[in-house]
Specification:
Blueprint: E1 7-10, H1 14-25, E2 30-34, E3 47-48, H2 50-57, H3 61-72, H4 74-81, E4 85-87, E5 90-92, H5 97-106, E6 112-114, E7 117-120, E8 124-126, H6 128-139, E9 143-145, E10 148-153, E11 158-162, E12 165-169, E13 171-174, H7 187-194, E14 197-206, E15 214-217, E16 220-225, E17 228-232, E18 236-237, H8 246-260, E19 269-278, E20 285-288, E21 295-299, H9 305-320, H10 327-332
Parallel strand pairs: 1-2, 1-13, 2-9, 5-15, 13-21
Antiparallel strand pairs: 3-8, 4-8, 5-7, 6-7, 10-11, 11-12, 14-17, 14-18, 14-19, 15-16, 16-17, 20-21
Helix pairs in contact: 1-6, 1-9, 2-5, 3-9
Amino acid sequence: MTSSSPIVIIGAGVLGLCTAFELYRRGRAVVVVDPGEANASRVAAGMIAPAMESAIDEVSPDHARLLRAGRDLWPDFAQAAGVVLARRPAEWRGGDVDGIEARLRALGFDVRREGDRTVTNEDYQVDPAQALMALQAALGDAVVFGRVTAVERLDQGWHVHVGPVTIDAGVVVLATGADGAIPGLPDAAREQVEAIQPIRGQIGLVAQPLSDHVLRGPGAYVAPLADGVVIGATMEPGRRDTAPEAETADRLTTAAWRVLDRAPEPLSIEWRVGVRGATGDGLPLAGPAPGGEDLFMALAPRRNGWLLGPLVAAVVADAIEGRAPSPEARALDPGRFSPPSRNAR
């Protein structure tokens, strides 16, 4: 990377902005290309929830440790970026309370039983709208708006074509969510981007303050935001359509009232849909892109983009700076999906 050329991050969701901010606070020149469209990071509850996510998905101990490591980076990162980090209880209600409690304990999370509920203080939360605004404000003029139409590899660095404008980049970071591959990527990188599975998620923004902490249960969660709560969320693999569906809304609302353990009442709900990206093992792609010098990935966090944002950012920044990979970096290395070399013994 030439010292005069910035690191260009393509995409302004949570992984793109976190990576840009991490590089920025390390003294690196960055440019973030924001397509200016609604992204899945905003259509989210801002969960930083290694405990509940690990128990619900029944992940391995190694996977749970990685999620916990992501959470542990948040206090310092949030303070530096001006992101409001909420630390409040999260509880599981309804079916399989014993199972959730047992899995939390087996994975080493602090948990307590309160009657017919399982409660942990190990999960945090951010408000996605506030967090995205804070990260963009911290980056200031480094954020530019436009859609990247192509990238072009040079002898050193890249040309990044944003409409009629060309940005000279020493390094490119792909943080394009579940979008398709950008023209001009090396074949190996293009194939990996195209292998990312889209996952549609529908949530509802509710004006009424139904809860002051995160409630989870079969079929739904209810989580507080600055203005009310969010009801969520579906996970619909293979779908890219973004129109909210009434049947899904009814199902989520019914499940939410069960979680709240209250009789239904009229609600003002704005339904939204976001499309996330996921890999085969449910972990993001963070680090050097296959087949591309000075090309890196910050992609496909499934539903844990907010949880893993600072961790992905640190992994990518370390890789750009040539630091030895951490255990987390090895777990998220995009090369884990590449076929072994024919020359490997």
